[in-house]
Structure formats: C-alpha cells, structure tokens
Amino acid sequence: MVLTAQNALNRSVMAAVAFAVVTVLMCDQVVMAGGRQQSSAATGSGNAVTLDRVIAVVNGDVILESDVDEERRFEEIQPYRSAAENTRAKLIERLVDRTLILQQAAMEPEGKVSDADLDAQIATLRRDIPACKDQYHCETDEGWAKYLGDHGFTVEEFRSMWLQRMQLLKFIQVRFRNGITISDDEINQYYEKTMLPEYARRGVKNPPPLENIKRRIEEVLLQQQVSALLEDWLKSLRAEGSVQIMTPGEVSP
C-alpha cells in the first residue's frame, strides 16, 4: 500500500474514528476517504461523492476497498502470479499480513534498499513482463509509463510499491533466513518445471533466460522455504494484536 499525502490523512482520520469516536461501525457502511470508488449517491448540490469502504482494521491501521483494488492491479502487473492468488479473499489476507509485517518492520528497521538495486529490479521487470515487452515496448520510458498508466499507476507510484515489496522481502530474509540456503539446482528445477511451462501457457515465444531472472526465482524459493516460519509468526501477531476483517452486516466492537 502506497499512500499519497491525502490518503495518509484520510487513513489517520478514519483510524481515529474507528477506535476513538465511532463505537458501532457497520461493514456495509461507506466512509469518506478520497479513494477511487464512486457512489451513485450525490450531495445536496447534485455533485458526485467519492467514497471508500473500510475492509479491515489492523492494530489501528485501516485497510480500504481502494487498497484491495490497488493490490489487484499491482498483482496483475507481476508476471509470476496465478489467478488463484488474486481472489478477493487472498488479496485481503495479503494486505492484512503485509500490514502486520510493516508494523513490525517499523520497530526493527534493517538496512535500506539502495536506489541501484531498485532500478535494477524494475529494469528486469520491464524486460520480463510479456505484454509490457511485446505490446508496449517498455524498453522505452514512454512505453513503460503507458503500460503502468493502463493499470492505474504512475511511474512513481509503482516504484514506491516495488520498493516496499523489496524492503519487506529484505526484512523477512534477515529475520527468517538463518540456516536456509537456495541451491543452484533448486533454481534450475524451478525455472524448467514452473517458469517455462507458465510462459508456454501464456504463449510467450521467447521467455527470459535463466540468468536474467535467477535472483527473482531465488526470492520465490526463499519465500517458500520460510513460509511455515512466517505463517506461525503471523498467527502469533494476529493473536497478540487486533485484526478485524469486516463482513457485510457485522458490527465492530
């Protein structure tokens, strides 16, 4: 989740309302948030009102309907996500987990991701996304901006989101990676048995060579290796904290 100044202000107000002012919050109630979702209702003057809905509250941090939409569009850009990973329930779960991790990362800051590393990953991404390469010519800045714009992002918005993703991976690596190694053989097998069939399914005639995406495959395998540890940790964070996912008709405490 990447916040503009206005959205950050809106979230602060909404979190304060959720925990300090409003004692009863219906899930199907919509709240003013400066988001993207348009209501069919209008103000007294006949002007349309921009509304957003609270989807979850995680230790005081608010997750909005617009965050779910943003996450969906962000995941669609990434070339290695399957449709099964982008159901609404999965998107909300991912946002809740990410919020919990971000809250912990803020208390345990690690080394920052360098601009050079960020630029290198985005450059690789621009080469690897099939539609980006074949239809938009993302090797050019104009093509890249057009591709992102068609998915609802500016270049800077996407850059900020990818930076956050890298920072989260780095935090997880530092916290859980001790004792975990990813061998070249594991990387080769994932490339041959997972990546190449997926590219073939999508009709990509010239998939990127292993060397170009080796680091990213290593990240995927690392995430798989630490998933059990991470899952247990997130369960404890949920149990120790306050996580409420709203459903229609539910009343928050």
What does it look like?
By secondary structure, the protein is mainly alpha-helical. Helix content is 59%, strand content 9%. The protein has nine helices and six strands; from the N terminus they run H-E-E-E-E-E-H-H-H-H-H-H-H-H-E. The strands form two sheets. Strands 1-3-2 form a three-stranded antiparallel beta sheet, with no helix packed on it. It is globular and about 50 Å long. Mean pLDDT is 79; it is low at 1-45.
Question: Strands, helices and their partners?
Answer:
Layout: H1 5-21, E1 31-32, E2 38-42, E3 48-52, E4 54-58, E5 61-64, H2 65-77, H3 88-107, H4 115-128, H5 130-134, H6 141-150, H7 155-176, H8 184-201, H9 210-240, E6 243-245
Antiparallel strand pairs: 1-3, 2-3, 4-5, 4-6
Helix pairs in contact: 2-3, 7-9, 8-9
Give the gist of this structure.
The chain is mainly α and 253 residues long. It is built from nine helices and six strands, in the order αβββββααααααααβ. Residues 1-45 have low confidence and may be disordered.
Main traits of this protein?
single chain, 253 residues, mainly alpha, Triger factor/SurA peptide-binding fold, 3-stranded antiparallel beta sheet, 9 helices, disordered N terminus
Radius of gyration: 20 Å
* Helix proportion: 55-70%
List the uncertain runs: 1-45
CATH architecture: Orthogonal Bundle
Instruction: Please give the domain count.
Output: 1
Average pLDDT level? 79
Beta content comes to: 5-15%
Q: What is the first-to-last residue Cα distance?
A: 25 Å
Report strand order across the widest sheet. 1-3-2
Under CATH, the topology can be stated as Triger factor/SurA peptide-binding fold
Instruction: Give me the number of helical elements.
Output: 9
* Major sheet summary line: 3 strands, antiparallel
